[in-house]
Amino acid sequence: MKYQPIIGMEVHIELRTKTKMFCACPGFHFGTKPNTQTCPVCLGLPGALPVPNAQAVEWTQFLGTAFGCTLAKFSRFDRKNYFYPDLPKGYQISQYEYPLATYGSWTNGEGKKIGIRRIHLEEDTGKLSHTTINGERVTLVDFNRSGVPLAELVTEPDFSSSAEAKEFVQALQQIVRYLEISDADMEKGSMRLEANISVRVGQTTNDIRQKLPDYRVEVKNINSFRFLESAINYEIERQSEALERGEKLVQETRGYNEVKGITFSQRQKEEAHDYRYFPEPDIPSFEFSDEILKEIKSKLPELPESKRKRFETEYKISPSYSKILTETRELADFFEEAIKVGSVHGISPAKLANTLVNKKPNISKMLPAELIKLIKNAEEKGQISDEELEKVSLQSIEENSDVVESYKNGKESVLQFLVGQVMRKTKGRADPTKTAELLKKLLS
Ligand SMILES: [Zn+2]
């Protein structure tokens, strides 16, 4: 490929804390009646003082730990100044110089390492909706989302294809859900993707950070994994073609039109100094001792990858099954709980894995013990021999000569009665379909 893509990701994750980032308003806002969950703090009224949500701080540190980041011993909030109607204060409380976590990494399925530059905490803005009222185009603003905690993760520009970027954000979503810090639902906007894309001619070194192009295009408003892939592919092509024509590419922010599958220019990108960041004077900075950071790290649950490997070695499950069984924490926990119950009843982990992967029982509607019971019953059912089934079937035919008579006279529906008799005699261990077939054969 003549032009080599250089891609970095920025992902916003809305944390599902009970209350907002700096006030006591409810954090959950999806589908709530507009502007019913606000107070002077999240409306940015004069004189209101923010109080940081300790849970949100800790959860951001969890996320940092999950990606092997260094957790900051000193951290603070800064004001990011800009004007927009969804931001009543005229600034967003964010983190600039001293984020909570820095310099982590993630390794993809092919062993390629992706750098995580930083993870910081900030507050969400209000939500604008553009609509028509009485034939007039209007923009409405809902402040229920204003002040909801947002963790922002920024990667190094280490991805070289849309597929790599997609693999990363899917893994990120899974990790966030394992940590139970957000539902990371892209349709609801609790996980939002931005891709920074540039291309350059060829390369002589493997370290793509050595010579980055002097521009990058930030594509915003991507709300699905599929759109992420197509938006990146579109940009790579657009930029390569522009360079091919000898054009100079500029730093800019572009939106993604999912209907047309194209990106479009929104504004020339602002530089950090445009935001005139300065330390948030209303919130004291944080200092974390080694003990506190150690304690935070110790609270982290087991993450998907280590669970996957453990299932393979501990339960002798194939890698493909292990991957499926660890897709969600619920399924993985269900599997392990069922193993405990199953061991008492002689149901092996392999048998359980097989059932969960292939039969896909609705685990949200049953307990592990109930699944074991089902497997046990099915096993017992399966133990009825063909000879026994035939013996019981013949017996049922003999005992119900009148029914047999009407069957032979063309009333085929009575066959179900005989199937019922066999089921009763075998205490449900016979397979109804197999029994019906056998009875038909015996009666023909
Ligand atoms: Zn509030």
Structural features:
Asn/Gln-tRNA_amidoTrfase_suB/E; alpha+beta; nine-stranded mixed beta sheet; 444 residues; binds zinc ion; Arc Repressor Mutant, subunit A; 22% strand; 3 domains; glutaminyl-tRNA synthase (glutamine-hydrolyzing) activity; 16 strands; Aspartyl/glutamyl-tRNA(Asn/Gln) amidotransferase subunit B; nucleotide-binding
Mean pLDDT: 92
Radius of gyration: 30 Å
Ends distance: 70 Å
* Principal-axes shape call: elongated
| Bound heterogens, unique | zinc ion
Estimate percent helicity: 25-40%
Reading the helices and strands in chain order gives EHEEEEEEEEEHEEHEEEEHHHHHHHHHH
**Helix/strand class:** alpha+beta
Count of individual beta strands? 16
Number of domains: 3
Share of residues in strands: 15-25%
Poorly predicted runs? none
- Spatial ordering of strands, largest sheet: 2-6-7-10-1-11-12-13-14
Question: Main sheet, how many strands, which sense, barrel?
Answer: 9 strands, mixed
Number of helical elements:
13
Question: Can you offer a commentary on this structure?
Answer:
The protein has a 9-stranded mixed β-sheet, with helices on one face. A 3-stranded antiparallel β-sheet has the order 5-4-15, with no helix packed on it. A two-stranded antiparallel ribbon has the order 3-16. The protein is elongated and about 95 Å long. 37% of the residues lie in helices and 22% in strands. The protein has 13 helices and 16 strands. It has helices spanning 54-66, 162-179, 225-244, 290-298, 304-315, 319-325, 329-344, 349-359, 368-382, 386-399, 401-408, 415-425, 432-443, and strands spanning 3-14, 70-71, 74-75, 78-81, 91-94, 101-107, 113-123, 127-133, 136-142, 149-155, 191-201, 217-222, 252-257, 262-268, 278-279, 286-287. A hairpin with a 4-residue loop joins β13 and β14. It is of the alpha+beta class. The protein folds into 3 domains: 3-297, no CATH class; 302-382, no CATH class; 386-443, Arc Repressor Mutant, subunit A (Orthogonal Bundle). Residues 20, 23, 25, 38-39, 41-42, 147 line the site of zinc ion (ZN). Belongs to the GatB/GatE family. GatB subfamily. It comes from Candidatus Blackburnbacteria bacterium RIFCSPLOWO2_01_FULL_40_20. Residues 333-443 form the Asn/Gln amidotransferase domain. Keywords: ATP-binding, Ligase, Nucleotide-binding, Protein biosynthesis. This is Aspartyl/glutamyl-tRNA(Asn/Gln) amidotransferase subunit B.
